[in-house]
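Pilot study result, target chain (197 residues):
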Amino acid sequence: MTQTPNTATANPDASASRPSRRAIIGLWIGAAALLLSAGLIVHFLPVPALLVAAAGAALLAVIAVVLGIRGQRSSVPRTGSAALLVAATALIVDLILIVVIAVGVLTGSSGLSQVEVRATGGPAFTVSYADDTQSYDEEWSDSGWKQYTTTGDTAEITVTASDDDAVATVSCEILWNGESVVEQSGVGSVTCRYDAN
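Predicted structure:
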């Protein structure tokens, strides 16, 4: 009985020259995770805590793609294994975030509210309002509005007439998820507050 030589041991460079299957799988899973992460980042822009998780998944996906490309060119099988492991981790984080979205949709609350603040006044007036990330003090003329998304349950805007026209009538309005919930007007200064609870 003759024994056929094993091609891998007979030619050690043959297996090293072929791209690692794990590297290729890691590359494809990493690319899919990167696409999912990009969509999740756009969705979670107004939610800083979940945005960090989506950005972390995107970073892991980029690392997996880089490792996958290097693993195809490398004779070290660990690079392909690392690509697969990092890609799987990125995909798992993405899937967890998708479950968070699905639970929010099923329970009827995504935790996000659309807020629009409006103001009118004399030729120039000052408005003060805040979203989840920062406060704003701006000068508007005649009328203006701003929209933002919030994870909170309150909104507030203060409208103040200019010093030159301190007795001017000013007004404010807050729209919460498209519905007008507060509207006020007054002389000199007025504040609209809304609490969704």
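One observation from the pilot: The beta strands are 113-120, 125-130, 135-140, 143-150, 154-161, 169-176, 179-187, 189-195. A full batch analysis is planned for the follow-on phase.
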